[in-house]
């Protein structure tokens, strides 16, 4: 039985069946969605140059050629639709309830529409995210940024994440108005995903990565190699990040894991960062810092941006956020917002489990229902962070589209009302 009837695909894909066995591909076919997306962009550019007023993209979906987790039955590889039809009974994550997922060509078409002004939004449109200037960098960033650590995968203690999931989440991030993405060589597969799925949208976001990270030959951070802040390793981290993320520059390069100033001086860490800045490989310098070394990081005045731990349950760095902002630096909050919502597993190592268990217990005892006014606890905690007057942005990560969309909806509401913010501070204490 010949399933693929189109003459165009006869040489590329043949599907056979004998009436009893399920149809299958008889030759290996490599999925390359970026080739299709590039072809769509090329055609649209030609139409634009020739003055065409409109173009109809054919085809949206090939329902007769569904995708499959089994390579020999992934018939979508022969389809030219801009979405792929899922196997019977499955629904997508990008648009819950619908039996398809967007392909790279779908996102390319959406990007073209945005760039051409077809999807311009009014300034007062309620779908825009609030922004703030990131200190002396002058970069205008969304107050909600995306933390790509959740893209790390099993190689770095994370959950498995498929290419489809990574592509959909990262493009949802940008489509939602977030323009700040934080990552690191330490985050397993995260940088590779960014390069594969959104490097073609590079001018839409501020990209932050780290240095000092161990670049083990096998790329496995679970071997617990030490961070190294030598000039050679700083440069190697940047070169690897640029290669992985398919870009020619990082907007901000941060030192990871908060080493002391003495260590950085001994290793010439900052001098190498400044050399990379002079070469155009990075635009601004930063520190992913915390106590006890953070005060001296701020005092030396060389870092343009600080990434600091801060939440309603851990306010130990609250005054340091203000100190960094007063010095002219950009300030970004990090640290899990969602983890305190559930008790940590008993199997977790005790040094990690203990503070999380404390945060969970304090949150449960605080009784926040009367403050929520219908909002989730997650929304309260996120909007609490944004209520700090000297904080420019907060990064939150997730590998789920629904979580990204919920976070965006919460941030659009802005900081908490003063009375709710004050009550939350009082009930949860300083942490």
Description:
With 431 residues, the protein is an alpha/beta fold. It folds into 2 domains: 7-116, no CATH class; 131-428, NADP-dependent oxidoreductase domain (TIM Barrel). Helix content is 36%, strand content 13%. It contains 14 helices and 14 strands. The longest helix has 17 residues, at 33-49. Residues 143-426 form the NADP-dependent oxidoreductase domain. This is Oxidoreductase (Related to aryl-alcohol dehydrogenase)-like protein. InterPro entries: AKR2_Oxidoreductase, NAD(P)_OxRdtase_dom_sf, NADP_OxRdtase_dom. Pfam families: Aldo_ket_red.
What is shown here, in short?
The chain contains 14 helices and 14 strands. The chain is α/β, with parallel strands linked by helices and about 425 residues long.
Question: Features of this protein?
Answer:
431 residues; alpha/beta; TIM Barrel; 2 domains; eight-stranded parallel barrel; two-stranded antiparallel sheet; 14 helices; globular; NADP_OxRdtase_dom; Oxidoreductase (Related to aryl-alcohol dehydrogenase)-like protein; AKR2_Oxidoreductase
**How many DSSP H or I helices?**
14
Largest sheet: 8 strands, parallel, barrel
How much helicity do the residues have? 25-40%
Using the CA coordinates, give the radius of gyration.
24 Å
Q: Architecture of the largest domain, CATH level 2?
A: Alpha-Beta Barrel
Query: What string, H for helix and E for strand, traces the elements in order?
Result: EEHEEHEEEHEHEHEHHEHEHEHHHEHH
Number of strands: 14
Neighbour order of strands in the largest sheet: 7-8-9-10-11-12-13-14
CATH fold-level assignment of the largest domain: TIM Barrel
| Multimer state | single chain
Termini distance? 68 Å
Tell me, rounded to a whole number, the average pLDDT. Answer: 86
Shape: globular
> Strand portion, in percent?
5-15%
Point out poorly predicted stretches: 1-13, 119-125
